[in-house]
Amino acid sequence: MTRLSENFTLRELVASDTARSSGIENRPDEQAVIYLARLAMVLEMIRAELGGRPVVVTSGYRSPALNRAVGGSRTSAHLDGRAVDLVVPLFGPPAEVAARVAGMGFVVFDQLILERFGRREWVHLGMARIGEVPRRQVLTIANGKVHAGLV
Fold first, then answer.
1. E strand or H helix that includes residue 58
2. How many angstroms separate the CA atoms of 84 and 105, rounded?
3. How big is the chain by its Cα radius of gyration, in Å?
4. In contact, 39 and 84? CB cutoff 8 Å
5. How far apart are CA 57 and CA 73, in angstroms?
6. Are 150 and 140 in contact (CB under 8 A)?
7. Which CATH entry fits the domain spanning 10-148: 2.60.40.1940, 3.40.190.290, 3.40.50.300, 3.30.1380.10?
8. Which of 25, 82, 105, 113 falls between 20 and 30 A from 96, CA-CA?
9. For the chain, which residues make up each domain, given as ranges?
10. 59, 65, 61: which is closest to 23 by C-alpha?
11. Each residue of 60-116: pLDDT tens digit?
12. Average pLDDT, integer, range 17-32
């Protein structure tokens, strides 16, 4: 098991029920592993800020086939290991997690999106590519509609 940080493993950041049940290989290349390791360090900072409560990654790296299977964007940061979807149940609802992360000036994210689909809700955290300036976008996507900020 490849440990990317104290609390996050490579297996955890590539795990997918959809890939497993559909027989889709979800193996990141070397560059994606570098991005996932960087992302794991950011997740450690978030975990610490949220009182050490476990951060549960519900979706991390996605191969192109997996991304298509889950209906992901063709330009998704998940495709190269720069994004995770997460929840922190022992801290609070995703809206509270998103608000807290948005206020953490030391987490230099590209996109922080509170996503809602029906009764499900999660936080998407995307990082910029190495060498690019992060946009620090904070958005809400509710049932397919994009809103600026957290609503």
1. strand 56-59
2. 19
3. 14
4. yes
5. 19
6. yes
7. 3.30.1380.10
8. 82
9. 10-148
10. 65
11. 999 999 999 999 999 999 999 999 999 999 999 999 999 999 999 888 999 999 999
12. 95
